[in-house]
Specification:
Elements (H helix, E strand, L loop, with lengths): L16 H16 L6 H18 L5 H14 L8 H7 L1
Helix pairs in contact: 1-3, 2-3
């Protein structure tokens, strides 16, 4: 008889505080309508939200908070449009 393969149960990994803060920021962006707003309004919104996240996730370093803000700022940018030259070179 063939041996049955041993199935090892691996516990699920918990998200890091960085992952949780990043995901929470993205959720706030989607809920608050930041996408498409004026740049100065986005800046104010990010200032307030990052202050909130730094209080909520006190274990994050200043560098990690900067990385999360950068990810959020990239997230709210409109998608890049293909120009005619890019479309012809890709074909």
């Amino acid at each position: 008889m063939a041996k049955r393969p041993v199935r090892r149960h691996t516990p699920p990994t918990l998200p890091t505080p960085f992952d949780e803060a990043r995901d929470e920021l993205f959720q706030h962006v989607m809920r608050c309508g930041v996408i498409g707003s004026e740049l100065d309004h986005q800046g104010e919104w990010f200032d307030d939200t990052m202050k909130y996240l730094s209080d909520r996730y006190h274990e994050l370093t200043a560098d990690q908070l900067k990385q999360i803000r950068l990810l959020g700022e990239r997230f709210v940018q409109p998608p890049k449009q293909n120009t005619a030259s890019e479309a012809t070179t890709a074909a």
